[in-house]
Amino acid sequence: MKNNIKVERARRNITQEELAEKLGVSRQSINAIETGKFVPSTVLALKLARFFKMNVNELFELEKND
């Protein structure tokens, strides 16, 4: 699964630590999601979308092998 979290975070000048704090997760979780090592739960994906004021489909995209 591909995601645009790093791009959106950079556009808003927010660190991984700041985003993690606002969502109640660890910085390592944000890093793992951004690098594609971890697929977030539905709840976390929805929280990310709400935080960035975007649709989930704008943040996450299935790849052919998903």
Brief summary:
With 66 residues, the protein is mostly helical. The chain is 58% helix and 6% strand. It is globular, with a radius of gyration of 11 Å.
Describe this structure in words.
The structure is a single chain. The model has no long low-confidence stretch (mean pLDDT 96). The chain contains 5 helices and 2 strands, in the order E-H-H-H-H-H-E. The protein has a two-stranded antiparallel ribbon. The protein is globular and about 30 Å long. It has 66 residues and is mostly helical.
Number of helices: 5
Helix-strand makeup class: mainly alpha
N→C terminal distance: 6 Å
Which regions are unreliable across 5 or more consecutive residues at pLDDT < 50?
none
- Give the overall form: globular
Strand elements, count: 2
As a percent range, the share of helical residues equals 55-70%
Spatial strand sequence of the major β-sheet: 1-2
Mean pLDDT: 96
Strand content: 5-15%
Topology:
Elements: E1 2-3, H1 5-11, H2 16-23, H3 27-34, H4 42-52, H5 56-59, E2 60-61
Antiparallel strand pairs: 1-2
Helix pairs in contact: 2-3
Task: Write a concise keyword list for the protein shown above.
66 residues, mainly alpha, two-stranded antiparallel sheet
